[in-house]
Every structure is written in structure tokens, then in C-alpha cells.
Amino acid sequence: MQVYEKISHTFEPVFDKHSRLLILGTFPSVKSRENQFYYGHPQNRFWKLLALLTEESAPISVPEKKAFLLRNGIAIWDVIAECEIIGSSDSSIRNVRANDMRVILDHAPVQDIYANGAKAYELYMKYCYPDIGRGITKLPSTSPANAAYQMERLKECWKLINLPRLNTIPPLS
Fold it and tell me: What is the pLDDT of residue 146?
């Protein structure tokens, strides 16, 4: 029998004063919690997909991933700060305490918010939208559990994200 665990999110959001889009997941998977960084399961297609969309190489290490995100004006975080969950199963999530999105939105010029999957969208709308009133666009999940979406189909759907292409903006003085 699988048992619920009460778990708190233990790593920080990634953003800076150039982050123009925010991608939200639900809560870190077991693998991501072990790695202490987002989308840590080797079968999750998040990093490969963003690399395709930015026409860059997929980052491997955590420092490379952070630099990749910031270079491309992307902020990432999860909707949930704390919950009860069985393993990595989004469908098992209960007793949610949401993250305060103002941590990012008050300090970065985020223009667009995207949900990585239906559950992230649902949780954002329930727990965050009433507080901050900012809309969110639902995208198909990059999780390996989303077998209905092969990489090419994911890429077509995710093309709508408004990538700022910050890597063409000169660095601040």
C-alpha cells in the first residue's frame, strides 16, 4: 500500500530581473527532489523541449540549466509549496499550500505565465489566480507520464510560448 507523505518544496524558484515568462509545474517529482532541481527525471522532456525551442543545446548540470533559463528570459517554479503526495503522482496531491507567485511577479517583468500540464493549470487557477488575478496558458505536460504527446507534438504545442530571446540583448552595465 502506498502512503501519503507531507512534503515541502525545498528549492528556490529560478528568475531574475529579465525573466519575461514564467513556467509553472505542480510539485517536484521524487527524482527532482533528490536532485534538488526542476524536471530532474531523466525521461522528462522539459529541458530537451526548451533546447529545441531556443535552438540551443540541452543543459545538463544544474548551473547550466539555471544559466540557460536566465539567458532566455525564463522563470520556473512550482505552484505548490507543500502538500501530501504519494511518490511523484500529481493525481494523488492533496492538502495543498501554494507558493506565493508575488515572489517572482513583484520582482521580474513577467508578461506570460504557462502551466506545464493540466494539473499545474488546475492548481494555479484554484490557489493562485484568485490572489493575483493573472491569467495562465495551459500547455501539455513534459512528464514521461504524458505518453499521448510525443516530442514533435509537444514542440508544436509549446511553440506558442513567447520566448524573449534574451541571449540577443546586451548584458547590463
Answer: 85
